Amino acid sequence: MFQYSSIEQYHAQLKEGSVTCLQAVQYYLDRINATKHLNAFIEVYADEALQKAALLDSERTAGKPGGKLHGVIIGLKDVICYKNHCISAASNILKNFSSVYSATAVERLLAEGAIIIGNLNCDEFAMGSTNENSVYGKVLNAADETRVPGGSSGGSAVAVQAGLCMVSLGSDTGGSVRQPADFCGIIGLKPTYGRISRYGLIAYASSFDQIGIFGNNIPDVALLLEVMAGKDDFDSTVSQKEVPAYSQLLSADKKFRFAYFDEAFNHPGIDPEIASAIRKQAEQLKTEGHVVEKVSFDLLDYVVPAYYVLTTAEASSNLSRYDGVKFGYRTEAPVADLTDFYKQTRSAGFGREVKRRIMLGTFVLSAGYFDAYFTRAQKVRKLLIDKIDLIFRDFDFIMLPTSPVTAFKAGEKMDDPIAMYLADIYTVMANLAGIPAISIPLFIHSNGMPFGLQLMTNKFNEVSLLQVSDLLLVAKSR
Ligand code: GLN
Fold this sequence. Notes:
Elements: H1 7-16, H2 21-34, E1 41-44, H3 46-61, E2 73-77, H4 104-111, E3 115-120, H5 154-161, E4 167-171, H6 178-184, E5 187-190, E6 211-215, H7 218-228, E7 257-260, H8 262-265, H9 272-287, E8 291-294, H10 300-318, H11 338-349, H12 352-365, H13 370-394, E9 397-401, H14 417-422, H15 428-433, E10 437-444, E11 450-457, H16 462-477
Parallel strand pairs: 2-3, 2-4, 7-8, 7-9
Antiparallel strand pairs: 1-3, 4-6, 5-6, 5-10, 9-11, 10-11
This protein binds glutamine.
Glutamine (GLN) is lined by residues 126-129, 152, 171-176, 204, 424.
């Protein structure tokens, strides 16, 4: 029977002939079928995946060299375009819309022989922390089905957690890869802003958005990053920097320097068990000879407000394109004039949370309030970037929890959006500053739920981030 542990091992099995791509696809299709109630997948491309697997098998047995992701089975968050496949951002306003091109990231996966098995549920337009804002309904956390998987990339996290694909893609604007990874006990990497092209990623807040990766082990995550990263003529914000061979650079026998903030561990919102587990981890690193030091950080209470002012402002602009005229849902109700047509279309097309954010964003950009909110939030962003720059002069990593609490119970936070926003306290700073960050599944809470350690590093220093994560995970498995 097929069993998955890593891409490397799967490739070894394919080579020795103990498994085929077809068997692997069939295995995942069976599992997806058996776990439909989790609601992780929106659509499963069963026939296509089987056909592609058969083709890859015949090419391999004929001796044709395979790509780096030969036969690797991947799921995509429903905000990442795959040509001629439906994409909706889990919104009614895009229901039944079919992608006219593939995201650059997807093109690169396909070029290396990947098999895309389906698209994955998420919060509408990637706005949320629980995957409960989806037109397709909520996703269940496979570790405890009464709890949420986190969001917004909840389906992508559960697909890897429950073994429904090998690796998956999400998007991270304020934590949407790291927080669901934390809630589901898997790895979630958000690369540096501009490391992976955003071409073909449905925009939420363009100066924050980044495609991220979910996996069970660091070598898999490193390989996907290596394949997808790099310059792209279709995204002017993507970096031109050379892409290191991340998957070949994982072993590091060195001592790292970690900074931590007392303000983060003493925050009133944090579950004391999470704070103490991470403090203990810090002590452990010290005894192993790494440098771990406290740094003062007085901006913590400002990061969530700054994030929500800036991202809602960007969202209100980005989402203005969904007007019922050019594509997507269009009202069929009788309308008085064009303005009424827009109103009816957008009122019926968008869900509550998206409307709330469009209105908030429109408000903070309005002439009378622009300086009071948008300009001030930009100033906070600048202060944060300066502070983080200073920290990385002396340290390799900032060490934080990923989330102040373990996975919420379903429905628990839906009536209190502010409480839900505040739980983003530890993740949003990486997006405000554009730096890479990862959630590493190291801990289990006494309530039975997993949680992770979050590490952030300087821009384009993914190599160190992956190295240290691998080190910690390998040590944990011993
Ligand atoms: N929870 C955050 C939000 O609701 C993160 C979203 C994201 O990263 N896409 O905005």
